[in-house]
Amino acid sequence: MPGDLKKKRGNLLNLGGPTRVLRKSSHAQGEDGAPQSSTDTSKEMHKVAKPQAFQKPIEMNWPPVTRPLNKSSVQGKKWKKADATQEKRRSFLHEFCKKYGGLNDPRSSLFHIVSRIYVEDKHRTLYCEVPKAGCSNWKRVLMVLNGLASSAYNISHDTVHYGKHLKTLDSFDLKGIDMRLKAYTKVVFVRDPMERLVSAFRDKFEHPNSYYHPVFGKAIIKKYRPNASVEALNNGSGVKFKEFVYYLLDARRPVGMDIHWEKVSKLCYPCLINYDFVGKFETLEEDANYFLQLIGAPKGLKFPNFKDRHSSDERTSAQVVRQYLKDLTRAERQRLYDFYHLDYLMFNYTTLHL
Asked: What residue ranges are annotated as transmembrane (predicted)?
């Protein structure tokens, strides 16, 4: 493991004991008592952190213990390879977190830590949303599992992300959160960090977008493009990948982070929440359909394989990523990898493009 992680080790928390978590007051919920919307943002209301009122911290056993997957619903030998792969991934992540400790800070509000986790009570499933790693189709599947739709293929993008049909774990009280973390099957799907980053850039900056261009594009062009045209400064369109990387790596960004390029380690807290299933975008259909078998989903439900938006565009592959990274210097590429190094290490990805 890299030396910088070893140096940090002395400051990492002990994951074995009870942790003080902060109790959220009722002010953190919406007016109707439902959780605040947690969405892909392209109409795209950007989430601004709001002050929360807290009561006295309480203690919970944190993180929930890792338990063997219940494979009683899996039939036949078809999934033998997928099962072996899954056990390797779980073991790798578990050993990494055990060795290097809590690379996330448990002093954060528990409600923040679980805010990206979607709840499906019928099949006792918790899914942590990672944008650009199949999350739109996963939400469609959750809606079908919840009985909110008969087919994943008939649900529009806007319904998925703005319909407020799915609950997130932070909408429950501490008892409800604790019970579900201990008893439900927890799943996260991840993706090669560079592919995920380039996919997000292409989606948000290479197509018309009424949120990302004026909010992110204008700020990026203003700070990182010398002699920018008045038109570019006014509409924020035409951000170049190199400019986007400058923004991402800037300690004084002119506009904040966004879930579409935030690190998985900060979205899903994989060393604080022991995920039972680690899927990868690179083997998305096989992993997802195996997971559906594990939770006893209806036999006719298969993970949808269509591209949610910009369906005529080539999917972001390693080859596509190389075309974008070639505009960066070697030092810039290294800094970009360093930015995502925890995601690379936790999920055993290889840095192919240096």
From this structure: none
